[in-house]
Structure formats: C-alpha cells, structure tokens
C-alpha cells in the first residue's frame, strides 16, 4: 500500500518533466498514433493536444519519416536511438526544419510500447547559417573585387599617363586627335571610379542584361563609404 503513493508521485513527477521539457516532445504508441505532446510541441506545430490526440503522427511528420519509424517497430529490441534532420508540418501547412530524435519506449527488457520523438526547431539555426554563408560570400566577393580593382588600375594608370602626356602637346595635334584623347581620358577616369567602387560593395544587386542573364549592377549595389586618409568618411 505504501508503494502506491510513491508510484503516483513518480508518475506525477515524470508528467511534469514531460510537460516542462524545453524541446517539443511527441509520445507515440506502436500504431504511430500520438498519445501525448507537451506545451513546446503545441507551440512549435500550432496544434492543440486535444486536436491531434490519437491521430497518426503523419499529421505533422512526412511519409518518409513514417516509413523509418515503421522500420523501428519491426526491429523492436535491436533499435536504440537515432536522429536526423527533416521537416515537420505545422497546423497552417508550412514546413519547419527540425532535428528529430527518435527513441524507443520499452516495456521491460524486450517489449516495445511506443516511440518518443524529440523535435528541435532549427529555424534560428538556418537563419544564422544563412547569414554566415552570406557573410562568407561577401568576403569572397570583396577579395575578388579588390584583386580585379588592382589588376584593372595598373594598366589604366599607364594608359592615362600616356594620354595626358600626349594632351600636354595638344598644340601640335589636330583638333580631331585632341578630341579623341580627351574622350579616352574621360573613359579611363570612369573605369577607375568603377574599379575603386568594386571592393566597397556591401549589398550586391543584379540586373537583367541581354539574353536574360543577370549581372552585377554596380550602381544599384550598396557600398561602404570610402575613408579619407584621416579615417573620416570621404565624399562619394
């Protein structure tokens, strides 16, 4: 008789642990029907437990995962615990990236009474990964742009220098030649400005060009402000 209050106390304690666990928990029977879910599972999926109780778990977990769980039930005593990255369905119909840990619920040494699913929301992780990938992409773009800028500016400086030397002798040239040299000087300066802006791109933008191809739009892209020699932002 004394054991009954203790068993009841243990069950109550386990129920509180299940309910307050920070990750979403789904307890399934051997027919893959949802027996229990905690508050975190309700918040993650949008389902209330009374809406989904006794329904098969395919209400939230896809067919491929159901096949995997069916395999678990077939293996019975040999199965331990497994985890994988997948997606679950919310009540609104959207897909949520999760890490799903599947563990057997045993009855005695060999009997299997069901499956416990621990579901971890990966949406924040995916967002952070996306930001890291974007930062890496921008860093790589910046390195490429700096190399291009250097490679473009070196020959341009030589071309511009020679053009300006010729213009210093404009009185010995005909008007047509001088006009062409002035045009070359302007276009070289324009290319130098573009090359100078390449390493400072912070938010790349693209535009559609001939043939439907998309190319980097330097004018539409966001740029970091150029620093003056004293460290103050220089005028653009």
Unreliably modeled segments:
none
Number of individual domains: 2
Oligomeric state of the chains? single chain
Order of helices and strands: HEEHHHEEEHHEEEE
Strand order of the largest sheet: 2-1-5-4-3
CATH topology tier name of the largest domain: Beta-Lactamase
Q: Strand pairing plus helix content: what structural class?
A: alpha+beta
- Number of separate strands: 9
Number of helices: 6
Structural notes for this entry:
- The protein has helices spanning 3-20, 39-45, 49-52, 63-75, 123-167, 175-197; strands spanning 24-28, 34-37, 82-89, 95-107, 111-121, 201-203, 206-208, 214-216, 222-223.
- It is an alpha+beta fold and 236 residues long.
- It has two domains: 20-121, PAS domain (Beta-Lactamase, 2-Layer Sandwich), CATH 3.30.450; 126-223, no CATH class.
- The strands form three sheets. The protein has a five-stranded antiparallel beta sheet. A two-stranded antiparallel ribbon has the order 6-9.
- The protein is rod-shaped, with a radius of gyration of 33 Å.
- The N and C termini lie far apart (86 Å).
- The mean pLDDT is 81.
Record keyword descriptors for this entry.
single chain; 236 residues; alpha+beta; Beta-Lactamase; 2 domains; two-stranded antiparallel ribbon; 9 strands; rod-shaped
